Amino acid sequence: MTRLVSLLLAALPVAAFADTNGVSSALNLARQLNEAFVEVAEKASPSVVVIKLAHKPGSSELDDEDHPFWDLIPKDLRKQFEEERKKSRKEYEEESKSSRVPRFDGRGSGVIIREDGYIMTNFHVVDEAEKIQVRLLDGRSFEATVRGKDELSDIAVIKIDATNLPVARLGDSAAVRVGEFAIAIGAPFDLDYSVTFGHVSAKGRSVIPSMGINSQGARMDQDFIQTDASINPGNSGGPLVNLYGEVIGINTLIRGLRTGIGFAVPVNLAKEVAEKLISDGKFPRLWLGIGIRGLHEDNEDDDEKISGVENGVFVTKIRDDGPARNSDLRERDVIIAVDGKSVATSTQLRNEIRRKKPGSAVSLDIMRQGKPMKIKVHPDLWPEETDKKRSQ
To answer: 3-class SS at 200?
Structure first.
């Protein structure tokens, strides 16, 4: 932001563009930009909520020492978190001996998506919570229940008993452009309704190896919007908004503290999942059980060996426990269309497959060693949608 203002000031000579009060056009422009950010914060904040959660001791994902979160923070801060976690667990256990009053030890954020009390947040925010409290900007507090949650997209919907609530304006994440302003609103480190701003750093981030998210059977089935707006623990589930005050993403992941690398679930997917969770309580989806990457995503030497294909999705792996193992699909095939609809990215392929009906045959147009072929596959429900526990 400082760099942008400096460039604007440098681009407009002060003496040549002064108004009748002696104020330069550059300063007026900077003031207008300042007001724009203020207006966005005032417009979007009423639809943001602070979520407090009570967990059973040991039920939180962060109690798992192998959780990726611990590898993403500095050692000194990790030590502080671990000490606070042990202290909190001990206090909870002591209180539980004499009382069943819940101890709220977790926090996140959320976005109101319906005026009758439906709120969208992250799966990891509300997962394993015994009790959930929601506080609005006007100070009112409510107990909430989980309407539905979806681990693969990290989206959940909770419900409070209230009406006439301020509803967030949901934008179009497909129209988001790299470089545009992005504003995060949430409750990091118990600092409610904190507003930070930055830019959309990138779109389509589906490969984040250090966080266990990659193209070789990803833990999550969508890509992310990357932003340098400051996101910290407590921002999870809160909105990433544009200068129009529209939600473009749900803040979900951080790549270490103070790194300027955060990730948000694109709002188009979040909205699709939330609507299904409200109506059905779950979001069923199909999968093929293959590792994939678009030919123009994270290019590797393999691309040089693919001829006759400009756009498509490269098959990097056939999983032993996936539906595709029973088909004629092979590693190094390039999928160029699903039921006649062209696909050029991993996300496009996932979107097409997960919306098909279970058990239905899907026709894939592929290129194998320069030769076009058609292959039939029968996608199945994601493992999480069965009662089987399998790694991703």
So the answer is: strand
Paired tokens of 277: 């969770």
Does residue 164 sit in the same domain as residue 209?
yes
Inter-residue contact 53 to 258 (CB < 8 Å): no
Q: What CATH number has the domain bearing residue 109?
A: 2.40.10.120
pTM of the predicted structure, to 2 decimals? 0.74
Number of domains in the chain: 3
Please name which of 187, 138, 133, 190 lies closest in space to residue 158, comparing C-alpha atoms. 133
Strand pairing category for 181-186 and 362-368: unpaired
391, part of any domain: no
Catalytic residues: 124, 154, 236
Give the residue from 247, 254, 209, 189 showing the smallest Cα distance to 228: 254
pLDDT tens profile 43-74: 999 999 999 988 765 544 444 444 444 444 55
Return all residues near 217 (Cβ < 8 A) that are at least 6 apart.
289, 291, 317, 319, 392
Task: State the DSSP code for 175.
Answer: G
Q: Output the CA–CA distances (angstroms, integers) from residue 75 to 70, 71, 119, 199, 232, in the order listed.
A: 9, 9, 35, 28, 16
Same domain, 292 and 161: no
Q: Are residues 127 and 189 in the same domain?
A: yes
244 confidence band (pLDDT: 50, 70, 90) = very high
Buried-exposed string 199-210: b where 16+ CB fall within 10 A, e elsewhere = bbbbbbbbbbee
